[in-house]
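To make this tangible, we now present a fold written out as C-alpha cells:
***
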Amino acid sequence: MRIATFIHPLLRKPRLGLVENEYVIDANLAYQALLLEQGEEDVETLADALLPSDALRFLRRGNRALEALKNVREKTKAIISGEIKGPEGQDILFNIRDVKLKAPIPRPGKIIHTAGNFREHAHEAEKSGWEFPIPQWISFLKSTSAIIGPYDPIVYPKFVKELDYELEVAIVIGRRGKYISRDKAYDYIAGYMVFNDITARDIQREEMKNGLLNFGKNLDTFAPMGPWLTLKDDIPDPHNLKMELRVNGEVRQSGSTSRLSVSIPEIIEHYSWVMLEPGDIITTGTISGVAAFRENPERYYLKPGDIVESEVERLGVMRNQVVAESG
C-alpha cells in the first residue's frame, strides 16, 4: 500500500490518502463510510481514533490503523466505481493529477541523515580531490523545516554558488524503539520514500573546515521527499531497488540499493541509540554521480530553471524545479 498527504480540494487542508494507480482516496472519510455501513454511530470520532486523517497520527496508531486502512483498500473497486461515497455523500476519490501532494510525513520528529554508506560515492569524492574524507557512518540531522513535497520548487538561495543533488532512500520508522537489534529492525520500519538531499557545496565546504554539516544541507526547501510512503510489505527486498536522478532529462546518478555497504537493518541498529519514534526518517546516503565530484562540476551544479527528477524503483518519481530566490 502507498499512502500520501494531499490537499483535499474541497476541505482545503492536508489529508491522509490511499494511493491506488492514478487515484487517491481520502482514507479517513472512506473508513467513516465503511463504519456507517456497519451500523456504527459517531463515525467521525471513531474513524479519527482508528484511522486518523494525517500520516503522523496514522503511524502512531500502529497495527490498528494499518488494519483499518486494509479494510478501505479492500473496497477500492467500489470506491472507484462510485458505489461508496463519503458518510455525507461527499467525494472521497480524486485523480492524483488534480490534487496537490505534500511531503508524505510533513513534520517528522527528526531526520537522521547518513553519508558514506554507498562506498562508490566516497571513492568518487576521493578521486575528485574533495578536501574532506567520507568515512562510513557520517551522520547529521536534517532540519524538518527544509522539507518540501515531491513536486514543490527547490529554491536556489541568492548567496549560494554551488547547488547539488543527492538521491537517497528514506526509511520511515513505524514503531517506537531504542537499542534495536538488526534482526528485529524490520519490525520497526513503516516503509520507504524517495529523498533528495539538496546541498549547497560552497557552504558545506566552509562548514566542514570546522567539522560541521549544518546550513549547507538545511536551507529552506533542501529536503524534497515523496511522492508517497510505500509501506514495507510492498517492498520485500529494499536492497534491490534501482535509483536514478535526472536533470533536464540527463541521467546524473544511476545505481542501486544493492550497492549499499551496510544493510538497512544495520542502519536502524546503528542509529537506535536514540529513541526512534513513528514518523522519524533515516536516510541511506547517496549513490555516485553528484555534481561536486565530477570533472568540470560547474557544468553539473543545479541552476534556476532545472527540472530534477528523483526516482527509486517501486517508490516513485519526484519532479522538482529549481527556482531563483525572490527578493
Remarks:
- The chain has two domains: 2-101, 105-324.
